[in-house]
Amino acid sequence: MVHLLMLVSGLALAAWNTWQHLGRSRSARSWADDRRRDVTERNVLVLWPLIALALLLGAALGLTEDSTAATVAVGLPFAAALLLWLAYAVAPLPVPRAVQPRWYRDLHTSSPRATRG
After folding, report:
1. Percent of the chain's residues with pLDDT above 70
2. pLDDT tens for each residue of 25-78
3. Helical residues (DSSP H) of 45-98, grouped into ranges
4. Burial class of residue 114 (count of CB atoms within 10 Å of its CB; 0-12, 13-18, 19+)
5. What's the alpha-carbon Rg for the chain, to the nearest Å?
6. 107: nearest Cα among 20, 22, 29
7. Which of 44, 66, 69, 76: CA 20 to 30 A from 92?
8. How far apart are CA 104 and CA 29, in angstroms?
9. pLDDT confidence tier of residue 117, bands split at 50, 70 and 90
10. Cα 103 to chain center, whole Å?
């Protein structure tokens, strides 16, 4: 039952986060206009996708109970996703440019707030 809840939660979070990342509507892009852009950017582009990945991998762990190799194959990326999430949640690591959607980069390279010292 826990694995099913993790699967549903992971899929829902991944779908919502993908909608925000694609930014095809004004409401999907509303997170980019937040006053606390640094925190919101970190949440939408790094933390929420990592939690969605961890939830999906955690759900997959329920299917690997009979196989040690499969448990290791799913468990290592699960642990890596959680450690990476923890690193971004605790340390002020910069958001990688590779995870920023093009529309977001274009929006903030042309805005005057984008030039910070």
Report:
1. 91
2. 888 888 887 677 677 889 999 999 999 999 999 999 988 888 899 999 999 999
3. 48-61, 68-90
4. exposed
5. 17
6. 29
7. 76
8. 8
9. very low
10. 17
- CA torsion 56-57-63-68 (nearest 10°) is 180
Domain spans in the chain, listed from the N-terminal domain onward: 2-108
Structure tokens at 44: 């939408």
* Interacting residues of 114 by C-beta distance below 8 A, sequence separation 6+: 108
Structure tokens at 23: 């930014």
Nearest CA to 81 out of 14, 1, 5, 12 is that of 14
Alpha helix segments (H runs only) across 25-64: 37-42, 48-61
Residue 57 · residue 65 · CB < 8 Å: no
DSSP state of 14: H
Cα-based distances in Å from 71 to 63, 67, 86, 87, 109:
9, 6, 22, 24, 43
What tokens does 111 get?
């805005």
Strand, coil or helix: what is 100?
A: coil
